[in-house]
Specification:
heterodimer, A: about 350 residues, alpha/beta, four-stranded antiparallel β-sheet, 11 helices, globular, B: about 270 residues, six-stranded mixed β-sheet, 10 helices, ATP-binding (chain A), ATP hydrolysis activity (chain A), ABC_transporter-like_CS (chain A)
Chain lengths: ~350, ~270
C-alpha cells in the first residue's frame, strides 16, 4: 500500500473578522494520488480557494486559524512545518498556478530570469532538477537552469522558446503568460500542482489548450493535481476525480464519470441544472434560489438545507456525514438513498 | 416583414497608430466591414474572443466611438447624422448592462439615486415629476425581483446577482427598446447566472425588448439567443440562426469555438456512471 501524495484529513479552518469567527472550512477530507486530477468545484465563497491555499500554506495566520486536522504530503504534516521549511517545499514539491496571469509575473524582469530563479531555488533542494552537480560553479548552474527554462517554455507550447526567454511579460498575450506560469510551476518538477482557476481569465479556445497542457503534464511528470474551478464543464473535460464543495464542506466526491454521470447530492444536481445545455429550452433554466449562507452563523445541520428542495426536518438536526454510494463515490446527504425516487417524482 | 431595430452597415473602425519615443505602433483595424441587422423583439448574440472587436462594436452602437466608415442605424435613424440633442433622445431608447456589477455601480450612490439617474438625464424625453420618479424606481425594482425596501441601500450591501439586477433596473429605467448586454453574467456564479438569464427571458417576454447580447460563453448564447454572429479579429465570420450555427457550423472558426466549449457531460473515454 503506497502512501497517497496528498491527504487532507478533517481540516477545520476559522477566520476571524470584525463580525465574529467564520467557520470557513468544516472538516475537509481529500486524498490525491499521483496521476489524478482532482477538480474542486462550488460557488464563490464555498472554500475552494482556501483549501488550495491551505495546502501551500499561503493563507496568513491570523486571520486564519486551523482548529483541527492535518494536511499530509506523503505522510508529512504540512501544518506542523515552519514557514522556512514550507518555503523550501514550494516550487519544488508543490507547484502553484493562480487565476490572473498578469499579476503573477514580475513586469520588471525578463521571463527567462524569472524561470531561472525558480529552477535554481528548486535545484538547491534537488540538484537533479537542472542536471548539474551542486559543486558546479555559479555560472555553470545558471547556464544549465537557463537551458532547462528554454526546454520548459517549448514544452508548454511557446514557439521560438529560446529567443522568448529574453522577453518581458508585457510582450506575451494572456494565454501565453498563463503558459509561462505553468512552465514556472512545472520547472521544479513538483509532485503536487495546485491550479486555482487557471483558465477563468482566458478565452475558451485558449482554455482548451491550457487544460490539455495540464493533462499532458500529469502524464509526463507523474504528479497529482488539484484544479480549483467553478466550471463543471472544465471538470468534466479535464479531471479524473471531483469534489463538490458547499459552504466549507465537501458534499459529494468521487470519480468524474460517477459524479457527473450520476450526481446524488441535491447541490451537485442543482449546480448541473443551472448550466444551459443543448437541450435546455428558453426560460426553462433551473436556477438555484437563495445564496451561500453566512458562515459566522451557519444554518443548523446540513448547510445546504435552507436552499434544498428535498429538505426535511431531520436535515437540520445534524451535519450529515458522507455516505458511500458506489466505487469511491460519496455524498453527504441523509436522503442519498431516496434520491433516485425523489428525482423521478 | 419584421421591423429592423438595429442595422449595422459595412462598419469599419481603425485606431490610428502611435508614434512615441519608444518607436511607433501600426494602426489597428478593430472592425472590418461589419454588417448585421437585428430585428425588433429578437435576441441577437455576438460571440468572439478577447480582442475580436466586440466591445468596439458595442461602443459604436452607443455612439461612444465614431466608426471610420459605414453607418449604424437604430430604427432607421443614422447615428452619425444626429445632432447631440437627437442623440440624447435616442439614447433613452438604447441602454446597456455592463459585465462587472461590482464596477458599474457608483458605491456612493444609493440604489434610488442609481435607478433614477437615467430618469433625470432623460427628463426632456420622459418628463417625469419627482413623485413619478420614485414610483417608477419602486416599480423597476419589483420588475427585476427586488423590493422597495432595497431603495435606500448602497451597492456594497448587495450580492453580485442583486447588483446585476440593479444594473438591469437602471438600464430599463428610461424605457428602452434595445438593450445591449455586455457579458452580463460572466462575473457571476452559475447558480446566479441562471437566475439572471431567466430574468432576462422573462423581461423580454413582458416588455418586448430587443437584446444585443455580447458574450464569449457559447452555452449562454445558445440558451438565450435567436440568432448569433461570430466575430474574429474585427471581421464577422459567420451569422445565422442559433440552432443552425451550433448544429452545423460552416466556418473553421465556428467549429473551433464550439469544439472548445466545455460541456458538462461524462467523458467518453471514462465510459462509466449512470
Amino acid at each position: 500500500m503506497t502512501q497517497p501524495l496528498l491527504s487532507i484529513r478533517d481540516l477545520h479552518l476559522r477566520m476571524s473578522s470584525f463580525d465574529g469567527r467564520a467557520h470557513v472550512l468544516n472538516g475537509i477530507n481529500l486524498t490525491v494520488n499521483r496521476g489524478e486530477i482532482w477538480g474542486l468545484v462550488g460557488e464563490s465563497g464555498c472554500g475552494k480557494s482556501l483549501t488550495g491555499l491551505s495546502v501551500s500554506r499561503l493563507q496568513p495566520t491570523p486571520p486564519a486559524h486551523y482548529t483541527a486536522g492535518e494536511i499530509l504530503l506523503e505522510g508529512h504534516d504540512l501544518l506542523k512545518l515552519s514557514q522556512a521549511e514550507m518555503q523550501r517545499l514550494r516550487g519544488k514539491r508543490i507547484g502553484m498556478i493562480f487565476q490572473d496571469p498578469t499579476t503573477n509575473l514580475n513586469p520588471a524582469f525578463r521571463i527567462g530570469d524569472q524561470l531561472v530563479d525558480v529552477a535554481l531555488a528548486a535545484a538547491e533542494r534537488d540538484p537533479d532538477v537542472i542536471g548539474c552537480s551542486p559543486n558546479a560553479g555559479r555560472r555553470e548552474r545558471r547556464q544549465a537552469a537557463r537551458k532547462l527554462a528554454g526546454e520548459m517554455l517549448a514544452r508548454v507550447g511557446i514557439p521560438n522558446a529560446l529567443a522568448r526567454l529574453n522577453d518581458y511579460p508585457h510582450q506575451f498575450s494572456g494565454g501565453m503568460r498563463q503558459r509561462v506560469l505553468i512552465a514556472m510551476a512545472l520547472i521544479g518538477r513538483p509532485d503536487l500542482l495546485i491550479a486555482d482557476e487557471p483558465t477563468t481569465a482566458l478565452d475558451v479556445s485558449v482554455q482548451a489548450q491550457i487544460l490539455e497542457l495540464i493533462k499532458n503534464s500529469v502524464k509526463d511528470f507523474d504528479m497529482g493535481v488539484v484544479l480549483i474551478t467553478h466550471n463543471l464543464g472544465v471538470v468534466a473535460q479535464t479531471c479524473s476525480h471531483v469534489a463538490v464543495m458547499y459552504a466549507g464542506n465537501i458534499v459529494e466526491s468521487g470519480p468524474v464519470a460517477a459524479v457527473i454521470g450520476n450526481p446524488v447530492h441535491p447541490y451537485t444536481r442543482a449546480l448541473m441544472s443551472a448550466i444551459p445545455t443543448r437541450e435546455t429550452r428558453r426560460g426553462e433554466l433551473r436556477g438555484l434560489a437563495g445564496s451561500v449562507p453566512n458562515l459566522i452563523t451557519p444554518p443548523p445541520g446540513c448547510r445546504f438545507a435552507p436552499r434544498c428542495q428535498f429538505a426535511q426536518p431531520a436535515c437540520t438536526a445534524a451535519m450529515p456525514t458522507p455516505v458511500s454510494v458506489g466505487d469511491s463515490h460519496a455524498a453527504a446527504c441523509i436522503r442519498v438513498n431516496e434520491m433516485e425516487a425523489l428525482v423521478d417524482d | 416583414m419584421t421591423e429592423i431595430m438595429l442595422e449595422i452597415d459595412n462598419v469599419s473602425k481603425i485606431y490610428p497608430g502611435r508614434r512615441g519615443i519608444f518607436g511607433s505602433s501600426p494602426e489597428v483595424h478593430a472592425l472590418k466591414n461589419v454588417s448585421l441587422s437585428v430585428r425588433k423583439g429578437e435576441s441577437f448574440g455576438l460571440v468572439g474572443e478577447s480582442g475580436s472587436g466586440k466591445t468596439t462594436l458595442t461602443r459604436s452602437i452607443l455612439h461612444l466611438e465614431t466608426p471610420t466608415s459605414g453607418s449604424i442605424r437604430v430604427q432607421g435613424q443614422d447615428l452619425g447624422k444626429l445632432s447631440d440633442a437627437e442623440l440624447r433622445r435616442l439614447r433613452s431608447r438604447v441602454q446597456i448592462v455592463f459585465q462587472d456589477p461590482y464596477a458599474s455601480l457608483n458605491p456612493r450612490m444609493s440604489v434610488y439615486d442609481i435607478i433614477t439617474e437615467p430618469l433625470v438625464i432623460h427628463h426632456e424625453t420622459l418628463g417625469l415629476t419627482n413623485r413619478q420618479r420614485s414610483d417608477r424606481a419602486a416599480e423597476l425594482l419589483s420588475l427585476v425581483g427586488m423590493g422597495p425596501q432595497h431603495l435606500h441601500r448602497y451597492p456594497h450591501e448587495f450580492s453580485g446577482g442583486q447588483r446585476q439586477r440593479i444594473c438591469i433596473a437602471r438600464a430599463l429605467a428610461s424605457g428602452p427598446e434595445l438593450l445591449l448586454l455586455d457579458e452580463p453574467t460572466s462575473a457571476l456564479d452559475v447558480s446566479v447566472q441562471a437566475q439572471v438569464l431567466n430574468l432576462l427571458c422573462e423581461l423580454q417576454d413582458r416588455l418586448g425588448l430587443t437584446y444585443f447580447f455580447i458574450s464569449h460563453d457559447l452555452a449562454v448564447v445558445r440558451y438565450l439567443c435567436d440568432r448569433v454572429a461570430l466575430i474574429n479579429r474585427g471581421e464577422l465570420v459567420e451569422q445565422g440562426d442559433c440552432a443552425d450555427i451550433f448544429d452545423a457550423p460552416e466556418s473553421e472558426y465556428a467549429r473551433m469555438l464550439i469544439g472548445a466549449m466545455p460541456e458538462v457531460k461524462v467523458p467518453a473515454s471514462a465510459g462509466r456512471g449512470g
